[in-house]
Amino acid sequence: GLTVPWNLACYCREHHRLKTFDNGWHDRQLEDGTIVWTSPTGATAVTTPAGPDLFPGLVRPRRSEDRARVA
Asked: Model-level pTM?
């Protein structure tokens, strides 16, 4: 996907590699920063951010028209 403010998440090296290079794993970030991971078999795991929300305006989803303008 695009590298844009509303698509940023802080991943460790292992999770970044899963997201980027391992086909079959998918991640979805919720508005509060929670990330839902789906494995190639369909199993899900949920990770919730432990730290403070440093950039509250960056995790809010934007309308699809806003995203199209950036592309």
From this structure: 0.56
* C-alpha to C-alpha distance for 60 and 32, rounded to whole angstroms: 8
For residue 59, count other CB atoms closer than 10 A to its CB: 19
Amino acid 54: pLDDT: 60
Q: How many angstroms separate the CA atoms of 21 and 48, rounded?
A: 22
pLDDT in tens, 30-48: 887 788 999 999 999 998 8
Residue of 36, 49, 41, 67 lying closest to 10 (CA atoms): 49
Helical segments of the chain, H only: 13-21, 64-70
